[in-house]
From TrEMBL:
CDD domains in alphabetical order: DEXHc_RE_I_HsdR (cd18030), HsdR_N (cd22332), SF2_C_EcoR124I-like (cd18800)
Keywords attached to this entry: ATP-binding, DNA-binding, Endonuclease, Hydrolase, Nuclease, Nucleotide-binding, Restriction system
Alphabetical list of PROSITE patterns matching this protein: HELICASE_ATP_BIND_1 (PS51192)
EC number of the protein: 3.1.21.3
Protein name: Type I restriction enzyme endonuclease subunit
């Protein structure tokens, strides 16, 4: 707990910072004042004086529509027919010269919604409230601020407040931002960061960077994305912002190329779309082409781009259509590298591109680690005379995994920005991996030695081996996918192996919905010997017939009507059903191992050799964030890929980051759980031990201790080795404790876990687990104070117990006198008939008053300005560190010698630090 002054200090400190950044501080008390201020700012921004009727029509225009509709209106201009018959285009936000907007800051604006609300700090742009900042005092978890914003969505935010685009929440030491997208979840709040992905958590530093007028103006104008298909607002994360900015800068101010290294799963589609869109808006750029290397990625990227902005890009079905699109005035388009190569290489197409080859063209190559090292890339880049090209990849070709000695840097030039897998896992944008290795076979001449990996084709394709693997998958599928809450893929070494595995699964008795997809003609452009991504492909006359049979099985399973003639529709349907978890297991040789995102996919079975970028791309199909139940992406390898896995992680993390990227071994989790369980059972040896709990603090302690074990046990259940018999608390006793835990969670108004899905933590459970011990101690003291009853016979004993508890804690001991005096004033004389007071509020007010007395005493003793000492405390609470130049200002009027000055400064600082220590409850 902190005093309420801490929240006020954050607020006043933030406003002071913004004013120093040329924000205009404005006092706005209510909606009427907000509208009046908006009118003045609208006149100012548009250099106009609106009549009452004209302003009224603008307000009518702004009132209608959803949050999404209002976001569109904000960025569009309004055609106002003036009273004299002339037309004036009214601008609400300058999206082209974003620094030339008018920025104001206000605080404690009252919103008379369904429930009266006061908002902490509001940033107004041209008079509209576009950024809302919700502050919580130090020591309060940030999620409470997020929850308050969600409550405002239900009870407040009416009128002009529906134009809010960005929310910022902070408790001073942690700060996050997110868009006005109600109920999207706390996982979609983001920390700001610098160019090197270091988090900017402190509010004062965040404000200096994020609220810089040009930066905030640019975020509002360019980097809040209106997702058209979902009708919601999105905003770029810092690494996406820096990547796009780097690309735009390179196009605008250089003739060089470059590439972006952002790990798989980090939102590359949004980043590339925003980059391509903004580059296409540059007046000297004639065409922007987003180039992929497979038709399925062409289709998928087009759909994702259309979700952001329907019709913004042109996608071509064949080379003839591509040539026609290049000849048109369309600026932004998506195509495959194969079609583009045909267009520039085949005379019947290239002769129609002679004018286009002289245009200023920017090409953005997707997944630039794959097909950019062959002749096609050279053919394309050599054909156009004024071309710049940039690559996006999650797994670049580096010196260590270069097949022919050339790296991504050799092809594309310098790396413009990087965001590695260790960064994404640390930011909780993707999950870690749990990698398991299964299968050891004996060679006939090595009976005394088990061999981890036998890579001969004969051994890999043996009936016994493949039958054992099929049985293993069927036996362990439910465990790996948490009783089918998720689904799985099986990546195998080539089409012949796919067909054999499919037939083996079909011969078994099970109820899994199993499908497969593979190309029945050679796809040379995706072949990559280094990674094994096209390993063992065999194309013969029967392959298409075999696939037709598998598609007939699929049609029977789902009531569809596909065949190889409409293969692309079959692909799209599998894509959709995998994402919706309608397919349990998908068998593939190469397809779906890159560029496919499905949050419900949590397990990848692997029976193929993978290396470096191929390995990490395949593994990364499983690690999309979904919910608390999905804690990692699970990889089950039937070949020994451990050395390859370690090498890939080391390469693509720029360090040895296996402890971040990979989950702990199962046995270490067992040891961790059992250590917790032993301590837990010492405290609660039986169920009866917790049945007589009286105080809320006892219940909270139990809930938190059990929750830690619960979370760990949930994690362990994803391992195939999971066995409750190896744990110190057996299944039945654990279930009994869990019942008590659920009951107490409800009593404490803590959202419980789902009782039907064993050990699944809610978001709130997970967040509460992270509360610090010092906060719990203060909560404990408040609970004890609230329970004190002066009229009871045991009051003196209870009162003494509170003070003994305070004295017994090293952090709280110094505050014993304060607590004693507070009890004397606020509790000792209270009668049974008195209305119970708000102890926390009373204690806050008492601390503020006592601290003010202490500051006044120091000011009198030292002969300095008391207001400056209050400013010193306020700045300390805002910044989290002393600002000693304030003490220097306080001493200046005393006219002291250098030695006296230093002694006086030291004396005052020591006394002020004592006050901070005594009255701070963080």
């Amino acid at each position: 707990m902190t005093s309420t002054q801490s929240e006020q200090a954050l607020e006043s400190g933030l406003i002071k910072t913004l004013v120093s950044m040329n924000y205009q501080a404005v006092k706005i008390e209510d909606e009427e004042a907000l509208i009046n201020n908006f009118r003045k700012q609208l006149d100012n921004h548009n250099k106009i004086v609106l009549s009452d009727d004209e302003f009224g029509r603008i307000m009518i225009h702004l009132e209608s529509g959803s949050i999404f509709d209002k976001a569109i209106k904000l960025r569009d201009k309004f055609s106002l027919v003036r009273e004299d018959g002339t037309t004036k285009w009214i601008e609400f936000l300058n999206t082209q010269e974003w620094c030339k907007n008018e920025f104001q800051v206000s605080s404690q604006i009252t919103d008379e919604g369904r429930r009266k609300s006061r908002y902490d700090v509001t940033i107004l742009v041209n008079g509209l409230p576009l950024v809302q900042i919700e502050l919580k005092k130090r020591g309060i978890e940030l999620k409470q601020a997020y929850s308050q914003v969600q409550r405002y969505h239900k009870t407040a935010f009416k009128g002009l407040f529906k134009y809010i685009q960005i929310f910022v929440i902070s408790n001073g030491v942690n700060t996050r931002y997110f868009t006005n997208n109600p109920n999207q979840g706390y996982k979609f709040t983001f920390p700001w960061a610098d160019f090197k992905n270091n988090h900017i958590d402190r509010l004062d530093i965040f404000a200096a960077m994020f609220f810089d007028q040009c930066t905030l103006g640019k975020m509002l104008a360019k980097y809040v994305v209106l997702h058209q298909s979902d009708k919601c607002l999105m905003i770029l994360r810092p690494y996406q912002y820096y990547a796009v900015e780097a690309l735009i800068d390179k196009v605008a101010n250089s003739t060089k190329n470059g590439y972006i290294w952002h790990t798989t799963g980090s939102g590359k589609t949004l980043t590339s779309f925003k980059a391509a869109q903004l580059i296409s808006e540059m007046p000297d750029i004639d065409k922007v082409l987003f180039v992929v290397d497979r038709h399925d990625l062409d289709t998928q990227t087009k759909k994702e781009y259309d979700a952001f902005s329907p019709g913004a890009v042109d996608s071509t079905d064949n080379t003839k259509a591509l040539v026609k699109a290049l000849q048109s005035n369309k600026k932004l388009m998506i195509t495959t590298i194969q079609k583009l190569n045909n267009a520039v290489q085949k005379e019947r197409f290239s002769k129609g591109l002679q004018d286009v080859k002289e245009k200023n063209i920017v090409m953005i190559f997707d997944e630039c680690h794959r097909s950019q090292f062959g002749d096609m890339h050279t053919n394309i880049t050599d054909f156009f005379n004024h071309i710049r090209y940039f690559g996006f990849t999650g797994t670049p070709i580096l010196a260590k995994n270069a097949n022919d000695g050339r790296t991504t840097k050799d092809i594309f030039g310098e790396r413009l920005h990087e965001y590695l897998i260790k960064d994404a896992i640390a930011d909780e944008n993707v999950l870690s991996f749990l990698v398991e290795y299964h299968g050891k076979w004996k060679k006939r001449n090595e009976d005394d030695k088990k061999v981890k990996s036998i890579d001969t084709r004969e051994a890999m394709m043996s009936d016994k081996r493949m039958e054992d693997i099929v049985d293993f998958i069927l036996d362990n599928y439910n465990t790996s996918t948490y009783e089918r809450d998720f689904n799985a893929m099986f990546a195998v070494g080539g089409v012949p192996m796919v067909t054999k595995y499919y037939d083996l699964f079909k011969s078994r008795n099970h109820d899994l919905k199993i499908a497969t997809i593979f190309t029945y003609t050679q796809n040379e452009d995706s072949e990559d010997e280094l990674t094994g991504m096209n390993e063992g492909f065999v194309s013969d006359g029967n392959t298409r017939d075999i696939l037709e049979g598998y598609i007939r099985d699929y049609n029977e399973m789902f009531g569809t009507d596909f065949n190889t003639d409409n293969f692309n529709l079959y692909y799209d349907d599998i894509n959709k059903r995998m994402k919706n978890r309608q397919i349990d297991l998908l068998l593939v040789a190469n397809m779906f191992l890159t560029g496919f995102d499905a949050k419900r996919l949590n397990t990848l079975y692997v029976d193929k050799n993978l290396n470096y970028h191929g390995l990490l791309q395949a593994f990364s199909r499983t690690n999309r964030v979904l919910n608390e139940k999905k804690r990692f992406g699970k990889i089950v390898c039937f070949r020994d890929l451990k050395e390859n896995t370690d090498a890939a992680i080391s390469l693509y993390s720029n360090s040895n980051s296996s402890e971040i990227v990979l989950m702990k071994p199962y046995q270490s989790l067992v040891e961790e759980f059992n250590n917790q369980a032993i301590s837990f059972l010492e405290k609660y040896p039986t169920i009866d031990s917790i049945s007589e709990f009286q105080s809320e603090q006892d219940k909270r302690t139990f809930v938190m201790l059990f929750r830690a074990m619960l979370r760990l046990r949930t994690q362990m259940k994803g391992y195939n080795e999971f066995n409750g018999n190896a744990l110190e608390i057996k299944d039945q006793l654990f279930a009994d404790f869990q019942s008590k835990y659920l009951d107490m969670s409800n009593q404490l108004a803590v959202k419980p876990i789902n009782p039907d899905a064993e050990s699944i933590l809610s978001d709130i459970d997970f967040e509460l687990e992270l509360i610090h011990r010092d906060i719990i101690n203060v909560m404990y003291i408040l609970a004890l104070l609230q329970e004190l009853r002066p009229e009871s016979a045991s009051y003196n004993k209870d009162r003494k117990a509170v003070l003994d508890t305070v004295n017994g804690d090293p952090v709280l001991r110094s505050k014993s006198r304060l607590i004693d005096e507070f009890i004397r004033i606020h509790i000792d004389g209270r009668q049974d008939k008195d209305t119970p007071s708000d102890i926390e509020s009373d204690l806050d007010k008492y601390i503020i008053a006592e601290r003010a007395k202490a500051i006044g005493k120091v000011a009198a003793e030292e002969g300095v300005n008391e207001e400056l000492l209050h400013e010193y405390i306020t700045e300390f609470e805002y910044l989290g560190k002393p600002k000693n130049e304030i003490i220097k200002r306080a001493i200046e009027p005393l006219i002291l010698t250098f030695r006296e000055n230093q002694a006086k400064k030291k004396s005052i600082i020591e006394k002020m630090q004592d006050i901070i220590k005594l009255f701070s409850w963080n």
